[in-house]
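Posting for a labmate who doesn't have an account.
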Amino acid sequence: MIWLMRMWIGTLSMVSMAVLLSSCTMTQGITQLEAHELLLYGDQPTERITWIYGNLKEGSVETDLKIGTQIYKLRNQISDPFGLSGTLSLNNKATLRGPVSSVSETFNLSSLPFSSDLVVGTKAAVDGIYYTDGFDWYRLARAVKGDLRGKVSPTKISDLHGVGKLTDAEADLLSSQLKKQAPVAIGLMPENQILDAPQYIEPSPQKYLQTAFYVQKGVPTDLNIFVPDLTPPNSGKYTSVGTGGNASYSSNEASVILSKAFGSFSNAWRKANGNQVPIPSTPSINFSRFNTVTFFLGQKPTGGYGVEVRSTRVENNRLIVEVATSKPREGLINTQALTSPWFSIQVEGNYQSVDVVEGDSTLASAKAQ
């Protein structure tokens, strides 16, 4: 009985040692391990392309890497267009290829007759739209929201460097491959819209980078010639949305809110009209074409204070709103109650920040919400 028990313990020890050695082989044969993925959705062929970067330890000609449930042999890279510098081959292939999930259309592109302009329609937010005619690459739009449609003027770019998390070599490879299939348009998908999560990799890589595009091949003609601009110019043109003297804003300091979406503007509107019963409904604003600026002068001890817009201008995507303020005039009877002047305007364009100024003084500044 004791003899059987010793054999059983010995067998367990050998199994444990084998597992330990296997684990050591998988975790010690490579340094500076990184995984980079390119995910292509939309028009066929859709694909998930994974590059493995790293260095085999000195004296090693191969090592094991577990991806999902499969174990791959990593060796020096083979001669292949996809065999980028710094990468390793997997089972004698330059990359790991696999399918991607099916996604709905995120954008579409069409051309206008007798025009170099193109028409972009977005179904979901994209972080940039690019187009190749087979010879050059063009940027059609930077980050844009979903549910938009408008014309764009292509801007020629030298390459796709800096797009997503692609390395320059990965970007150049993607560029050359897609040029062969031109005309092609690609939309950079925001990270939170990538349906395919990173794969399980053992040992765990130091970095796991994913870049995903929705791909459209071919550009049909749009016969509707009356198409507005996709993103309006930052003209600074404005119209009044509302004004008043009794906001629920109670700070003595001036404040401004630059809104790029309904939620932000709705909060600002309720703050401006919070002392009214009932609070008037929030005005409808087309935020694909306009931002809103809501300014609070600050709580004042009496009536007679006010503020009005004199002009607007744009400096490097920063909106400058020039105002004139007023104070109680001597000899006039004013309301002996707390007041809080405010105004709200809608401004054509899309801005990153706003300054409200009077002469050489800045009354309030804010970044867009």
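Reply:
Got it, the structure tokens are right above this. The chain has a mean pLDDT of 88.
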